[in-house]
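Q: Got a minute? One more chain.
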Amino acid sequence: MLGRGVEISEVFHDAGDVHAGTDEPYLFGRLRLSGPDPEHRSYRSYASFSDPDGNGWLFQEVTVRLPGRVDAGDTTFTSSTELASALRRAEAAHGEHEKRTGQRDAADWPNWFAEYIVREQAGKPLPS
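A: Always. Here it is, folded:
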């Protein structure tokens, strides 16, 4: 957008849902703190612009999608910690699965873990 001459505001963030500072001419009357969210939390850093018709638009940085907001075909992790946490949840759920079935299916655990993690991220029903 910058390459096409669109003026975009500086990156800004809120202070507990209270913005401080002006955001004109992009979103009239809104307030903000300069710079990205100090903790780089998802849905907490913004930039804005105005289109040729005078409509105000707001960009919102997403670093980690909320559960159920991921396309089932796009399973992604933003850190090794996030992936490790998903693997631990899948491991615990797989243990419960083996208790319910009354048998170990150790040879198939990677497929079961993968299905669990993809479904969990996509907000779909988890395997039983």
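A: Confidence is low (pLDDT under 50) at residues 25-29.
Q: Perfect, thanks.
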